[in-house]
Write the C-alpha cells for this entry.
Amino acid sequence: MIDIHNHTIFSDGKDSVADVIQAAVERDLKIVGISDHFDPYLLRQDVCLQPEKVSSYSREIERLKGSYPITVLSGLELGLQSTGISWPVGDFDYYIYSVHTVPGFPDLRDMEDPWDIYLEEAAMAVELIDKPGFLGHLDFLRRHIPGSKPPSPGELMDILLKQIIACDVGLEFNTSGWMYRLGDPTPQPWVIERYLELGGRLITIGSDSHRAISVGKYNNDALNLLRKLGISEVFYAVKDRYLSIPI
C-alpha cells in the first residue's frame, strides 16, 4: 500500500524517478515516496545526492506528481549526527532520518558489537530534529557487522525510542531485512512493539529499494506482521502534516 523509502539515479539507485513510480503503480501501491541519500557525513559522497543537484531532483519529482494514478511524495534520506544536521535547500514532504555513522568511528562495520555507541549517538542526533519524518532502518548495521548481531532490549534502546516519540518522529518498518536475508525486518518486531508500548504510533513502511524491481517488495509480509502487532494504520507526511492510511 505504501513505500516511502526508494532510491534513484540521483543518488545510488539504478533507475529513474519515473521508473520507480511506474513500478509502484504496477505493484498497486497507493503511496510512493522518493528518498534519495543526502548525507554529508558519509565518506563515500559518490552515493549521495549532491547539493547542486537538489533543485533538479525536487523539480523532477514535482514534474511527475499527478502524472500517475498514485500519490507521489518528495523526500530525502537525510543523514544526521549529534554534531548537527545539514539541512538541504528545498521543500520536501518528509525526511527519512538515518544515522549511518558515528563521530570518531568512521566505519562501524569494523566493530563486532557497535550497538551501545550507535544507540547513544542516534538518541543524541534525534534530539536535533524539528521537521516531520521517520527514523530509518534503526538496526541496519545487522547487514554489515559480524554475525549480523542485532541490538538488545535495554535502557539505551528505550532512551532512543523515547527520544523519537518526544520529537514527534516516526519509526520506519524497513522491509530490507528480508531482502538481505536477515530473517526479519529492520528493525526487528520487538523494537516496534517496544516503541508502541512507550506510546509511539507513527509507523511507516519502506523497502529501501535501489532498483525499481524492489519497490514495494515484501509489503504484504510487512502488513501482515503489523496487523499481528495490533497496528491498524500506517503513516506518511506531506509537508508539515502526518497523514495515515488504514491497513
The chain has a mean pLDDT of 94. The longest helix spans residues 115-126. The CA atoms of residues 112 and 146 lie 6 Å apart. DSSP finds seven helices and nine strands in the chain.
